[in-house]
Design a protein that fits this description.
heteropentamer, A mainly alpha (about 500), B mainly alpha (about 675), C mainly alpha (about 180), D mainly alpha (about 400), E mainly alpha (about 100), B: about 675 residues, mainly alpha, 2 strands, C: about 180 residues, Four Helix Bundle (Hemerythrin (Met), subunit A)
């Protein structure tokens, strides 16, 4: 693509960025704007919708050549699918934030700007075809999230979350960058010298990677694994998820995961010819992640923390797709499974956090199990929505989580990685327990949970967000066909240019 | 035309469900509504039964007929990704027809009974809404021609069960019981779902049978199993599939280790216990095993697992039933035990006799529950056997049907239970994979214990001296089945159940008496009617080249031994409790109360001493302490069962890593990084 | 010869000053040691024909980043080493051991020795690292660097917004809401 | 001979003014290779040698402006006063406050001075002409290091110079010193942005960051108007103070004063609130080093100003008699003009408040510099594009080809 | 030019020193400096490799890495200042409100 065409192809990102800047300026210069988050929120939403429109437009036109900006980005259908997914999740996150920030008195326009910028970072992670672009995209996402994690500045927990996330994130970024450097050194293409362009690296089929490349790959895996919260690089997740404001946690939990896994997938498909070397590592990490995440989630009494471990566990599930993609025959299924599961995971996790955000009020976040006690009597709507999300997270039919697990399981079997499939099955059973404990607390435990003295200023946002998430995750379970375009688009990644 | 009748069987209960659900909207007057619902709900099920009978006589159902071919109601599911197509097809074969008959027949009777039983409840329409939905889902489960439809039914009946257990959800115990059932079943369902996924990924289809012979069971009905593409399926994959499906069956059919939910499920109304937790839903696991018999016969490992799980469940269930004081709990454990028999039968490859026991069990266990319900109904909700006794005089009709059922389940010669149980024992003794004699012995011991505890129930309920002075309850124990506006409650009178509740009992009693003979080896038309009827839908062991071991002893000797076991158990209980009654101790229990043991010891019956030592001390201890308190309450009970407790402990240990100190986190990251990098380098060096 | 001596001298300065940075409990001294490391790295960059990067290294790292560090240290008055280090804690021992294993492993595996052959010639080195080359690479429509360059601008904008969000005194907070 | 003369004349007309033309080799010694050493000597002599003079100039000029007598005791019009000052500083007792970070305390003043001196290394003091063996003429800029990142080097050096102030303030263990140091560093960092951007305006026009290249690029017709008379080529009207449309030179001049912490931006040493700022605790030689560092700094930034905006060694008009004054004299004069400007400001303007200072830097100068950079970039692009009717400026390519 | 491996090993050494520093420093500012050292070490790798290959790529990476480092610094120091404001202490080990 020429640069002009490339610009056209990343219009979604450009739209997001421009929207973010407009929100920032509006918040800075228009006093009425500052009073409530509605203006910023709805403008952000508008931007997201327009961006989604552009992405849909791209998705419906099969691009002949997907490399943009001379190889910096790959804007094929896989990228557009991830973009759409990210935009959907970001839109829901913005909606829930409007209410939450109002409830918690955290309303500031910068929030939306940062969310929009972080989303564009995640999109670029999914699009990055050059490792250095990936690095920049990771940092765009991370830097915005460091700030968002510490957005509730008067709360020590929020600040602590930001500090931990930042220090460990920067540490991981160091590894990521070093890994990129080593890959650059190890991948000399005759006549060109080193490169970090994945499309160029991909051409070297069948060749044995050098030590430097392999070490670099491992280090990049560390960097991305940190973002995706893979064991043993996951330890920040519970603390940060717990401390961050709930709306941020929800956003962080889903958007980072989508970006990180898209990037992981792209990276490892590019290195698929060398699968013999890295596949065992991925498998081991996947098993470790699934087991550890589920194990630690069992005894948590803080729902945000439990969901953090659950997101670690889901990262393990998703890694199965990456492992499965190493087998060429299973690659399309693995890609489709990953995108579908990301959608499922995103909707249900965001939904769960949205419920918590809904119940948070001025003085406190709703986050412990006891806050949810007997909610079905005091606030049946919230309780039942939570039940749906919990069932979906547990992979119980007829929810999207079930179908997603189905795809992952079959992908693992198709790539003859029986152990991954069995581990998935076993830990899923463990997982059911702690998800259902939330259901139990909601429905059957006596006593009153958090007092819902709801500020009625902007409850619509979170409600729309919740109902959309619930509807989509149920719809995805009953009729997965609604996600077909995305899945078909995702399958195209295997055919690298 | 051929398709319409079976379809009616399926859709009629759905119509009933819709009607009941909408009745509140349509009919304003609550009395009229109640009456209409009580009429329509049993009506549709009985009508469905009539149609099912019609199907039976019309087709003779000798052949496998996939119904409604190519109605792709669910076509959009999954198609285009992975090439899976799931049609909304039904299968009509002897198995599904038999099950349909039981569901609609026994179900219809129980509906009629329930109309009387629930007459005084305020929410009859809600009850029948769930009840009819359950019948529909159960029919879908047995009639569906693919795993997915079966799974929908599977989930559907689970949901209905959950709703009905916690029907009186205002009581927390009920709600908890419902939740427990729900949670434990989810574990099983996950196994089923995973098994289904495995089937899809191995075979590429989910259908059982298709006209062109490309269903899973069609493919498995050969000496070598081939997938759709014609490649042989590895034996390990079949074992995996079978074991995963078995997990589902274990949950649904309350086998070890997933049986804990069933006793608690007795919190629901008694008709629910009769229909769902005795006659139909809990046998879904057996039905599924039978349906998949074509797969199971290819995996000896899976068969062996099934058989041993079944045998152990049968024994443990029976032992646990020994000490129960709640009349419904006894029946619940008895159900677990009997389901164990069915699993045992399936495990040794004798699927048709397993189904035979399903049928007879539906009759006598349904009868037992309904009889118990009548007792409870008469006792105004009292379920504790220690507060019963001497009811024979007060409730003679109930006693009559109960005694038939008891003797039937105990395996009294020539009654229904005798035939089916004996067939299972014989098959078990000839198990193709060895270990037959042990299985047989376990079965026999179980039969003995079964006879004992069933007669114990009868004695404690009906014979021992009346605790009622002139039909008055000395103390009225309120329980959850208490009906608030029950007029007689104030007087505490023991009343007979209304006739509408008794009618179904007589019919079931008749079946419990004679069906075994009718379908058994010495029945009309050359005998083995049921076996021959089922033959087309059940895989023979010989398919995979398996042969049963030679008989241990001649057939007649077998009958004799099992008759002796049954009679011994019955007799022992009768003798013991007669003693007991003579002593005048009313509130004690021979099994539970050790002072009775002492008294018996002091009476210098030499046999008593042995009996005490062998049975009560050891058996009682085992049953009471180890199994009931130890195994069930501590280890298996609640959500923190067995593995869960272990996981919880592991989790607590692992949590110590999470110190909250970012430097430690970074250290773990570095350790992971170093391991990863060096591990990969070593791997590259090796190549 | 001169190049070799220069390398060893610079390497020694780098290593020693970075060790001082890690070892010192006084943040200001750490910061100065780091500045020294950065400056000697900048000189090393010049020997590696990266003059522009060297200048930028000094401007950005030494001139801006580290000054900011010092600034914060002084603003928060953290100069006094109030934090006694525990030199022999498990954490430290493990950290050093792991890092040692990592370094030795990388070097022993020959990660840095077995490089692909480089197409090096005078032609390649001509103008390498000049401002013109940098500009050409960054802005040429035929190089892939235009997009990352634009992306960094957004990244910096995020950082600016973020820093303001974090550090600015909120009117809402002072109102005591 | 004639050819040589013609060529020399052409060379002069092209603006590379040379008072003297040396042979390239002299007894086998490659003379151009010696130019940096010459430059080094000149630089050191000029900076260190003029320091006492500068002190004197400052005192005298200020006194003149403030209508008072100024130094008048030692020597004619107090001319020997600086010598006495220096002697006093040398021989004063060296006091060492308690509880200081000794190493850093002693290091700080020398960092200041050293960095300021090092920054001067890339300033082109003039241009030396040589005749090659084949007879063609070429010139070598009179600078210690004629590096191709000259301007960046200056920026780097000025950004490092902060350390001296900050560390002095911090190591003194004195809150006035600390606040003075922090203020100084904040001020320097803030104004560095505007300074860098205003310099970038010139880079956009010149197409190079090499300082000698920038000076040479000013040796052209004003605004590229080729029809103007030759004496205007490389004249005061073609220097970048005018070609960049005046604003950058204003910005740079303001920023340069702030960078050196001089009045009216001498907040770091505001006596009324901070005693003497970061050097409160310094005395004797160490104070002298600060003092010297400050003056060297002033010289260096004025030198940069002269090179970048005021034509460096170029004479104000490309004709007799200006062309026959050596380039480095012109350069020195320009630098001294800058120093005079410094003193002028000090004598006339009151000190700014701190927030006003920050406001000026961030909210006024930075945006203005940005806008101007864009403006000039657009203007430059327009002139380079073929659509334009305007004549082309010296582009980077031409500059490179020319050398 | 010296063998490129000299530079690479030097940079690996610096990277490792930085990583160790991250693990053992209690003051987050110092931790953060160690992270900066890690990034600097990587930059050296990039430049040495770029020189070895005779291409500009290495230096381009460094430019981006510098920009990223600058962004991280501004946000990181902002966080540290903010946390100091709320709790008057910035010791990493003290930041453990949330654990297990």
């Amino acid at each position: 693509m020429t640069n002009a065409q490339s610009m056209q192809a990343i219009l979604p990102v450009i739209t997001l960025l421009i929207t973010g800047m407009v929100v920032l300026l509006g918040d800075a210069f228009l006093p009425f704007w500052r009073r409530s988050g509605v203006a910023s929120g709805s403008l952000s939403l508008l931007g997201i919708v327009i961006a989604a429109g552009f992405a849909l437009d791209r998705l419906s036109h099969q691009p002949t050549h997907s490399l943009a900006f001379h190889g910096a980005l790959s804007l094929g259908r896989f990228t557009q699918a991830c973009t759409l997914l990210l935009l959907l999740l970001a839109g829901l996150a913005v909606l829930l934030a409007v209410t939450y920030l109002e409830n918690r008195r955290l309303n500031r326009g910068e929030y939306y700007t940062l969310v929009l910028f972080a989303t564009s970072g995640a999109i670029l992670m999914a699009a990055a075809n050059d490792l250095i672009v990936l690095f920049i995209a990771v940092e765009m996402l991370s830097v915005a999230l460091y700030v968002l994690a510490g957005f509730a500045r008067s709360e020590p927990r929020s600040e602590e979350a930001a500090l931990k996330y930042f220090l460990l994130g920067a540490f991981a970024a160091g590894f990521l960058l070093y890994g990129i450097a080593l890959i650059y050194g190890g991948a000399a293409i005759s006549g060109l010298g080193g490169t970090t362009n994945l499309a160029l690296l991909h051409l070297r089929q069948g060749s044995v990677p050098g030590f430097m490349t392999v070490a670099g790959l491992a280090l990049v895996l560390v960097g991305l694994g940190f973002k995706a919260a893979l064991v043993p690089f996951h330890m920040w997740a519970p603390d940060v998820y717990e401390g961050s404001p709930t709306s941020v946690t929800g956003f962080m939990a889903v958007v980072v995961k989508v970006g990180a896994f898209a990037a992981l997938m792209r990276l490892f498909i590019a290195f698929a010819p060398a699968a013999a070397y890295w596949l065992p590592a991925i498998q081991i990490i996947a098993v470790l992640t699934m087991v550890t995440g589920n194990l630690l989630a069992v005894t948590q009494t803080n729902v945000k923390r439990m969901l953090a471990y659950s997101s670690v566990a889901h990262a393990g599930y998703l890694l199965i797709a990456v492992a499965a993609a190493a087998t060429p025959a299973a690659q399309p299924l693995a890609l489709q499974a990953m995108v579908f599961y990301l959608a499922a995971y995103g909707l249900m996790t965001l939904g769960a956090f949205a419920v918590l955000a809904w119940l948070s009020h001025r003085d406190a976040d709703c986050q412990t199990l006891s806050d949810l006690r007997g909610l079905v009597r005091t606030d049946p709507a919230a309780a039942w929505l939570m039940v749906i999300f919990m069932l979906s997270l547990g992979g119980i039919p007829p929810t999207m989580g079930f179908i997603g697990k189905w795809y992952l399981f079959t992908a693992a079997l198709q790539s003859h990685q029986l152990w991954l499939a069995i581990t998935l099955a076993l830990v899923s059973m463990v997982a059911v327990f702690y998800y259902l404990r939330v259901v139990w607390t909601l429905c059957f435990e006596e006593g009153s949970g958090i007092s819902v003295s709801r500020n009625t200023l902007a409850p619509a946002g979170v409600q729309i967000s919740l109902y959309v998430a619930a509807l989509l995750s149920l719809l995805g379970g009953i009729a997965p066909i609604v996600w077909q375009p995305l899945m078909l688009a995702a399958r195209s990644l295997g055919r690298m240019p | 035309m051929q398709n319409i009748l079976p379809q009616l069987v399926l859709w009629l209960p759905l119509l009933g469900f819709l009607f009941c659900a909408a009745s509140g909207l349509v009919i304003k007057d609550p009395k009229v509504q109640k009456k209409a619902v009580s009429l329509i709900a049993p009506g549709v099920v009985l009508l469905a039964f009539v149609f099912a009978l019609a199907v039976l006589f019309q087709t003779h159902a000798r052949t496998l007929v996939p119904l409604i071919p190519g109605t792709p109601l669910l076509e959009p599911w999954f198609t285009r990704y992975g090439g899976l197509r799931v049609d909304f097809n039904l299968v009509l074969d002897p198995l599904s027809l038999l099950m349909a008959l039981i569901i609609t027949g026994v179900g219809g009777l129980i509906h009629v009974y329930a109309a009387g039983y629930m007459a005084e409840d305020k929410e009859v329409s809600r009850f029948f809404t769930y009840f009819n939905l359950f019948v529909f889902m159960m029919l879908l489960l047995v009639l569906g021609d693919n795993f997915l439809l079966m799974f929908v039914g599977w989930e559907g009946v689970g949901t209905c069960s959950y709703l009905l257990i916690s029907f009186w959800f205002t009581d927390e115990a009920n709600a908890k019981a419902g939740n427990k059932a729900f949670i434990v079943n989810r574990v099983g369902d996950l196994g089923f779902a995973l098994g289904m996924m495995a089937v899809w990924s191995v075979f590429g289809t989910l259908s059982f049978f298709t006209r062109d012979g490309r269903g899973v069971m069609d493919l498995a009905a050969h000496a070598r199993v081939l997938d759709l593409a014609g490649n042989p399926v590895p034996a390990g994959m079949i074992t995996l599939i079978c074991l995963l499906l078995l997990v589902g069956a274990l949950g649904k059919s309350a086998q070890i280790p997933l049986f804990v939910w069933l006793p608690d499920a007795m919190a629901g109304p008694t008709p629910v216990s009769a229909l769902i937790h005795a006659a139909t839903m809990v046998t879904a696991g057996v039905v599924m095993l039978t349906r998949c018999s074509w797969l199971y016969v290819h995996s000896v490992t899976a068969l062996q697992t099934v058989a041993w799980v079944g045998a152990i469940t049968a024994l443990l269930g029976a032992l646990m039933a020994l000490t129960q004081t709640d009349i419904k709990k006894v029946l619940a454990y008895s159900t677990i035990s009997q389901l164990g028999y069915m699993f045992l039968a399936c495990g040794v490859g004798d699927f048709s006799d397993g189904m035979f026991h399903v049928v007879t069990h539906a009759f006598f266990k349904g009868l037992l529950f309904l009889g118990a319900g009548a007792v409870i109904h008469s006792m105004l909700g009292q379920q504790d056997m220690r507060r019963m006794g001497g009811l024979k005089k007060l409730l003679p009709a109930t006693w009559g049907v109960m005694i038939v059922a008891t003797y039937s389940i105990a395996g009294f010669p020539l009654l229904s239970g005798f035939w089916s149980k004996d067939a299972i024992l014989e098959s078990a003794s000839r198990a193709c994979f060895g270990g037959g004699p042990v299985l047989y012995l376990i079965g026999l011991v179980t039969a003995f214990i079964t006879a004992f505890y069933m007669n114990r129930l009868m004695w404690k309920t009906f014979y021992t001296d009346a605790r009622f002075v002139n039909g008055q309850l000395p103390e009225l124990h309120h329980s959850n089945e208490e009906h608030e506006h029950h007029e007689e409650a104030a007087h505490g009178k023991v009343t007979n159940a209304p006739a509408s509740m008794m009618q179904p009992l007589y019919i079931l009693a008749l079946l419990a008496l004679g069906f075994g003979w009718f379908a058994g080896p010495y029945g009309p038309a050359g005998g083995n009617l049921l076996k021959n009827f089922l033959a087309p839908s059940v895989a023979p062991l010989s398919l995979a080249g398996l042969q049963p071991q030679p008989e241990l002893f001649p057939k007649l000797a077998g009958y004799l031994i099992s008759s002796l076991a049954a009679l011994g158990g019955l007799g022992l209980a009768a003798w013991l409790y007669r003693q007991h009654m003579a002593t005048g101790e009313l509130t004690t229990d021979a099994v539970k109360d050790s002072s009775v043991f002492n008294r018996l010891l002091r009476s210098n019956f030499g046999f008593d001493a042995v009996y005490n030592m062998v049975f009560f001390r050891a058996g009682g201890m085992l049953a009471d302490r180890v199994l009931w308190h130890g195994l069930e309450e501590d280890v298996l009970n609640g959500t923190a069962t067995g593995a869960a407790a272990l996981i919880g402990r592991l989790s607590l240990a692992a949590r110590k890593m999470q110190t909250g100190n970012a430097r430690n986190y970074a250290l773990v990251m570095l350790a992971g990084m170093v391991t990863l990098v060096l591990g990969l380098l070593v791997r590259v060096m090796q190549h | 010869m001169f190049a070799q001596i220069l390398f060893w001298v610079l390497a020694a300065i780098c290593i020693i000053s970075s060790l001082v940075m890690v070892g010192s409990s006084n943040p200001v001294r750490s910061a100065l040691a780091l500045v020294l490391t950065m400056l000697s790295l900048a000189v090393m960059y010049i020997t590696l024909s990266a003059q522009f990067i060297a200048a930028v290294q000094v401007v950005v790292y030494a001139g801006a980043v580290m000054v900011l560090f010092l600034f914060v240290i002084m603003l928060l008055n953290l100069g006094a080493p109030a934090l006694p280090e525990q030199p022999r804690s498990m954490q430290t021992v493990l950290a050093i051991a792991l890092a040692g294993v990592f370094l030795v492993g990388l070097v022993a595996a020959g990660v840095f020795q077995n490089l692909p052959a480089a197409p090096i010639s005078a032609k390649h080195l001509h103008g390498l690292g000049t401002v013109q080359q940098i500009g050409y690479s960054l802005y040429s429509p035929h190089q892939p660097w235009l997009f990352p360059f634009e992306a960094t601008s957004i990244l910096l904008l995020i950082a600016v917004v973020g820093a303001i969000v974090l550090a600015r005194k909120q009117p809402a907070e002072t109102e005591g809401s | 001979m004639l050819d040589n003369l013609t060529e020399a004349w052409q060379h002069l007309r092209n603006g590379l003014y040379q008072a003297f033309i040396f042979p390239e080799y002299w007894h086998g010694i490659h003379l151009p290779a010696l130019v940096p050493y010459l430059a080094l000597v000149m630089l050191l002599a000029f900076t260190l040698g003029t320091l006492p003079l500068l002190i004197w100039i400052e005192r005298v000029v200020v006194s003149l402006m403030q209508d008072r007598s100024g130094p008048n005791r030692l020597g004619p019009r107090g001319l020997v006063q600086p010598v006495a000052d220096v002697l006093k500083l040398f021989f004063k007792e060296d006091l060492q406050p308690a509880n200081i970070d000794v190493r850093i305390y002693y290091l700080a003043p020398f960092i200041t001075m050293f960095v300021a001196l090092a920054a001067g290394a890339v300033l082109p003091l003039g241009s030396v002409g040589f005749r090659a063996a084949d007879g063609h003429l070429f010139s070598v800029p009179l600078t210690v290091g004629n590096v191709n990142i000259g301007l960046l080097y200056m920026l780097a050096a000025s950004s490092v110079s902060v350390y001296g102030l900050v560390l002095a303030g911090w190591s003194s263990n004195n809150k006035y010193a600390l606040i003075g140091g922090l203020r100084a560093s904040a001020q320097v960092i803030s104004y560095e942005l505007a300074m860098g951007l205003s310099l970038l305006c010139v880079v956009v026009l010149a197409g190079t960051v090499k300082l000698s290249g920038i000076v040479e690029a000013q040796n052209s017709y004003p605004f590229g108007l080729h029809f103007l008379p030759v004496f205007l080529k490389g004249s005061i009207f073609s220097w970048y103070w005018l070609q960049s449309l005046i604003v950058p030179v204003l910005l740079y001049t303001i920023a340069m004063i702030a960078e050196t912490n001089r009045a009216p931006f001498d907040l770091p040493e505001a006596e009324s609130e901070l005693v003497a700022g970061f050097h409160t605790e310094y005395s004797a030689m160490k104070f002298a080093a600060f003092f010297a560092g400050e003056y060297v700094n002033m010289l260096v930034v004025c030198g940069l100003n002269a090179s970048v905006f005021w034509g460096g060694w170029l004479p104000p008009f490309n004709c007799f008699p200006f062309t026959f004054v050596p380039g480095f004299v012109w350069y020195g004069l320009k630098v001294m003009m800058g120093i005079f400007f410094y003193v002028w400001l000090r004598a006339t303007l009151p000190r700014l408040r701190y927030d006003a200072l920050m406001n000026l830097g961030w909210k006024k100068m930075l945006p203005l510099a940005l806008v101007w950079l864009f403006l000039l970039a657009g203007y430059s692009t327009l002139r380079q594009s073929n659509l334009s009717l305007l004549p082309k400026p010296a582009s980077a390519a031409q500059t490179m080809a020319g050398r | 030019m010296l063998p490129v491996s000299y530079y690479l090993i030097l940079s690996a050494l610096l990277f490792t020193i930085g990583a160790v520093g991250v693990l053992i420093k209690k003051n987050p500012i110092q931790t953060f400096m160690c992270i900066e050292l890690m990034l600097n070490a990587v930059n050296l790798t990039f430049i040495a490799l770029g020189r070895y290959f005779g291409q500009m790529n290495g230096q381009m990476y460094v430019i981006f890495s510098l920009a990223v480092a600058a962004a991280e610094v501004s946000v990181g120091l902002g966080i540290i200042v903010a946390i100091f404001r709320t709790r008057e202490s910035i010791v990493v080990d003290d930041a453990n409100l949330m654990k297990s």
